[in-house]
Known about the structure:
Chain A: The chain crosses the membrane at residues 43-67, 87-117, 129-149, 169-192, 212-236, 256-280, 292-313, 325-343, 364-387, 402-422, 434-455, 475-502. Chain A is mainly alpha-helical.
Amino acid sequence: MATITPDTQIDIGHNDDPSSNYLTSSRGFLSWAFTLDHKRIGVMYLVGIFSSFFLGGIMALLLRLHLFMPNGLFPEWLVNNDTYNQLFTLHGAIMTFLFIIPSVPAALGNFVLPLMVGAKDVAFPRMNLASFHLWVLGGIFFLIALVTTRLDTGWTFYTPYSIQTSTNVIAATIGAFILGFSSIFTGLNFIVTVNTMRPPGMTWFKMPLFMWATYATAIIQILATPVLGITLLLLMAERILQIGIFNPALGGDPILFQHFFWFYSHPAVYIMILPAMGIISELMSVYSRKPIFGYTFIAYSSIAIALLGFLVWGHHMFVSGQSPMTAVIFSGLTFSVSIPSAIKVFNWLATMYKGNINLATPMCYALSFIFLFSIGGLTGLFLGALATDIHLHDTYFVVAHFHYVMMGGTVIAFVGGLYHWWPKMFGVMYNEMFGRLFCLVVFIGFNLTFLPQFIMGSRGMPRRYATYVPEYQIFHQLSTIGAIVLGLGMVGAVTVLIVSLFKGRKAPANPWGAATLEWTCTSPPPYYNFEHAPAVGSPYDFSDLKYDPQVGGFVKDPEAANKPKTDSHH
Amino acid sequence: MLSILADASSSMFFPPERSTFAGDVDRLFDFIYYLSAFFFVAIVAVMVYFVLRYHRRKGHVETPSASHNEVLEITWSVIPSILVGFIFFYGFTKYLDMREAPENAYEIQVIAKQWSWQFIYPNGADSDELHIPVGQPVRFVLQSSDVLHSFYVPAFRIKMDCVPQRYTSTWVIANETTGEGIEKDAHEPYDLFCAEYCGKDHSRMLAKVYVHEQSDFDLWLEGAANYLEGIPPEEGGEKAFKKKGCTQCHSVEGDNSAKYAGPALNGQWGTERNVIPRGASSPEAVVMDENYIRESVREPNAKVVVGRKPVMPVFTPQLLKDNEINAIIAYLKSLK
Lengths: 570, 336
């Protein structure tokens, strides 16, 4: 089998000027829209997913404001039960399909992964571009659903309601179907890139853990996403042709839909959280200046999570009427996933031991992640246990739990990773003080939003309610205030980055003293990433990196390189 | 919030325990809660300590230490495994108790529909609010007449989905009455929610649960079964008309707009109307009389009024008894 090497790629718009980089090597809209450069595709994804995040975030704020009063804050003509249902549906669908699934793999992963292997691009640059174009197309279908008759099924499209509702289920499912292909293309590209393009010397157990995490993610993307695609096709067929697969009135089975749907959508949770864990592994190590503790356990735990994640989908259906035996089996399997996640948390903590901890903004996000993800993970125990799940299922306890995992976990890690790689991506340093300040605002706002939801959920407040009985009002009000703070924090965090594009000082090649290969090229990287193929070392050996005040960043210390190593990676 | 914490019958995390399951569920919850709190505090404490102890400052450098330690790592994999094994075991044994109702349980049929609840009792009585006797196993047989719903009573800690074309069930023993007598004002009923999203008025699909002493319950049940007795038929018909949800789709004030899915019913008695018989393509005229009303209730799509969609649900004898139809006919006759 022919190996794909970076040299086989076609040179488009290459500029021989040594001062040029991938941002300036060619200009104009078309040079971006049809670029084959993984870095530009990553940046375009970044713009795309942040637009989606903004849209989904506005909807979240509207929802929360509406819930400030038991019968709704907004007048009927503005937000009634119908509009509320559409808002939470599109909030969920946009955040899941358009933002969080592509966030780390497609935006950050695309940019970082080829640099980490010291290559010029991913294995299939054209497929990479196609993945982005499909994402845009899928997003357009969501916008069609949004501006036409909207969508009110919940992001889960549960039958038979999704077959009966008059809203635009077809547009939204076509959108999600196309986005599935986008996700598969990204996953396929990563698997082939990691398998075939690692440089000599980078064995599996010398890969940075971010690569392990994205590799594990890619396996799920390829195996699980087709199931969603087929399910959505069946749903469309059901709506158009009335063939009775899921519609009980025609002899179909609505529980079957739930099995199909969660067979994708539970592993999708790991598509979201695994790469985030990969980011945290990098951050904890770099900012503590310590080799990651228990590398092998972390690497294997990623694969374990990816595989076990396929076996637990039934825990979404404990009260659906499935047999008690099925419920017991799924409950047991569910707990098995908690162990590799716990292992990772302990390893990250141990990494800080005896380190030299730099509380830069990305590290603040990483610490915030450990706090929030621990809450998210531990509250999963209440939901995995059958007796307590019966009471908590479909209440705000679940809403709070998955927001702690998805947002407190993935989004926080994503923003931390973005801050970490930002100097590499755009060649500028941001304002540390404001970076840390808004990290704190996000942290406070987040907890104020979602902690009260655990309490109201365990007190019985069901989810997806446009109106509610007054006894839950205080919790909703705290949560709404928290959401406003969280929103401001997020806007602030993004503003710090955008301001740095115009006012930030020039970034050195290696501002943080990281040992992975992406930090050996200039910031921002040249069009072809590296002048010379970088030499592969241990990704977590910082002993020969020394801060140089003149450069404003870390450089190889020739003396340290000759000294005998007291601390090796293995 | 303080008033909630001060309420001695409930904890911060829970509504009052009002079923025999509730105590078990809450104890398991508390166990997981304290265990999680312990691990969470430990994780955050270690994290904060390390940050304070090892943060970057002048003259501070990192010190080499082991990059892995198999004994430590296996320990912190095995201990959590044992603990979650414990949680799993308690979770599923209590759950099995909650799934299997005793054989002598009193059985109530629950029909969920967009967007109301209907409870049908063994003597044929029915109600839109749930009434049960205290201290007695009560089994709920759940059905849905349209989409998915979920039957949820937080005070009992029970929840089960209602799936169209399928029966599911759950059961409970209530351990305290909500009040004395059969007058509603003397009770403080529990909330009954729909927990599975079911469309527009999902959040308004609420009902109340009344728990009675057995003797009060029997009294209530008899009254509910015979609610048409002792009152004039028109008055009984009006009660039945409202109770069965007819007012959601039929105006009795002449409003024929699209706001109501069905035609207005006042002043129509004995007049002709254009209908499309099932399977026919051209309309024909029928007189609105006793037979037409009865047919329209039992087989709504047999003759649909021109310009209306065939959306009326079927009212089986279980849902609407013959004497109720008779009363409704008397009521419709009286409407001007």
